[in-house]
Amino acid sequence: MENPIRIAEVLLPLALGQAYSYAIPDGMELAAGDFVEVPLGTRSYFGCVWEVGQSFGTNMKLRAVTRKCDAPGLSATHRKFMEWLSAYYLEPKGNCLRMVMRVPAALDDPRMQMAWVLGDIKPAKLTPQRARVLEVAGQGFAMKTSELAEAAGVGASVVKALGAQGALKEVALPPHQKFAAPDLNAGGFALNGDQQAAAQALRQVVAGRDGKVVLLDGVTGSGKTEVYFEAMAASLAAGRQVLLLLPEIALTAPFIARVERRFGCEAAQWHSDLRPRERERVWRGVASGEARIVVGARSALFLPWVNLGLIVVDEEHENAYKQDEGVPYHARDMAVLYGSLGKFPVVLSSATPSLESLMNVDRGRYSTVKLKDRHGRPELPETRLIDMTAEKLEPGTWLSPQLREATALTLQAGDQALLFLNRRGFAPLTLCRACGHRLNCPDCAAAMVEHRFRKILQCHHCGHQEPVPQACPSCGEAGKLTPVGPGIERLAEEAAQLFPEARMAILSSDLARGQMLRDTLRGIEEGEFNLILGTQLVAKGHHFPHLTLVGVVDADLALESSDPRAGERTWALLAQVAGRSGRGEKPGRALVQTYLPQHPLMKALARGDRDAYLNGEKQIREVAGLPPAGRLAGLVISGKDANETQRFARDVALAAPPAEGISVLGPAPAPIAMVRGRHRMRLLVKARRDVNLQAFLGAWLKDVKPKGSLALQLDVDPYNFL
Ligand code: ADP
Ligand code: ZN
Question: Which residues does 299 contact at the CB level (< 8 Å), separation at least 6?
């Protein structure tokens, strides 16, 4: 009998539902999880061995694995995690694997890597492309061909040509700097009584080494961070890796410094603006087990963990954990899933926990650990409503006399005030006073937002920009275009007039990013600024010790929407932003401008009665069968032609098989009925909690094939309803 052919089933990081078979050449040892290079069509790809087996067939013409990569293989738990992820979100497995394999450079032997630096010779001919490459190389970092090409937005051949001419010089990259081991007693405070009890409870859960989930529920400033540090220490002491997940925006330098002080070592960071080489270093560090502490944004879940012992999800209620593009996963939910697969605990921390987590506590699936008081300052900031229906405001102004006076007094006392308005730009809408025309995006069913600092109109859905016109594009009248409503920039104008002496900082995601954002946040923390105007960027996670007044300019902004979580989200946002106040020596307070002072949310906010509000919300969801009492899946059907899109959406709806406990609502035009020139229809699937939603979706959508410009996007557990 013939020798069997050894076969590797290799999953590629592409939109493929299953692994492909390759022959394992003689002399190559492969196991499931190994990273390999394989041919596909005319190209070569990195992939991951999903299974190995053998076949006695002789007529099989399998292509062979080209080589085995040097990187350690993906653990069985991590592969199982990909399988589950794929099944839960009905995404091809390859798309899930792609999230793990974002750093192909890390699969290669680290020793022999070459990179480019600026050479001594000027290139013979300086094309704009070449100039860009040289400009990037001139920043002084040695970069590999692919990195340099990507950073300069050119093909690899441009880089290589410059290298051949000597305009770029090849250097061997130094080895990656190692991640030092943590020192578990390096820092940390003497915990107060409540904190000690909470830390002890978490340590016990960590010692249990199973997939338990604990909700760490404590008011802002109660020391949740200090407490979950103790859980991390326990897991590190057991020799394991720990992952601390944060919403991207909360990954600030002071926070990282705090982690590093506590553990006396560098914390590996993972977020979207890492340099490629640092990305590679962290990926390798995690894969080898050398990086013990990772502080990262949601995608850090997909790092190639070998020995993960704990995940902490800070600010677990944050919507930023939900990814909208690609695989639409929710990092908190997937952290819980990973913990149960890997048999390690997960700690969810928040001052305003999600209803999802609170209901899981009610059902006995999660345990809870509470911190009731702020450390060293028992009282939470006093919150008072300002009834805007009773206030007299000049047209085009937004700060009530009460809030103006409170701000003035705060500044006089040498303290900091924060005016919060969760809206970017100058004005959300521009109208022509002569003809009523409104300036809309040409490609979206949405108004253009004026950004006065940048002197543009911008669409917040597609990014389209244009200069602010002098005359109305519809009737031609000059000087009649009028901004309607406030954005943070318009508020800044008003504040600058009222408080000309104030040292003002404006924090909005389109004005401050990266280093500039970090500098401004540090400036606020150190008291360089005394009047802060901010969008949700400032609402969370930051510790501003000099801040004693928070003014919420429009508390009603997010309440009206089609999103079933609008109330819950507004609650979290307002409670968090109020919680920025009074975190230092002096007590703080929050003034909340609202036109709905009788709304249950506002009344509960003023009383500081979270449970009253959330219990009301829970009841509403139970009655309506909405999450977390029921389950949802969203379908967005889009296409270039309105009629065709509608027809297809109707056909898709008609194809839904009847099922007990499931209803399909729609199709209806999406709240934003057009984006980037594509018409959008929505379907919403509502299911009881006890039915298998995935099985239903799978059976329904298996044969639905959008053609031409049509597209269908499925979102299991949606958070975005636009
Ligand atoms: P939370 O995460 O609940 O918002 P933090 O852990 O950030 O709270 O703590 C709030 C502030 O109180 C921080 O500045 C922290 O350093 C300080 N703090 C908390 N616990 C203690 C403690 N036991 N001793 C001294 N300072 C503490
Ligand atoms: Zn647009």
Answer: 99, 102, 270, 272, 323, 331
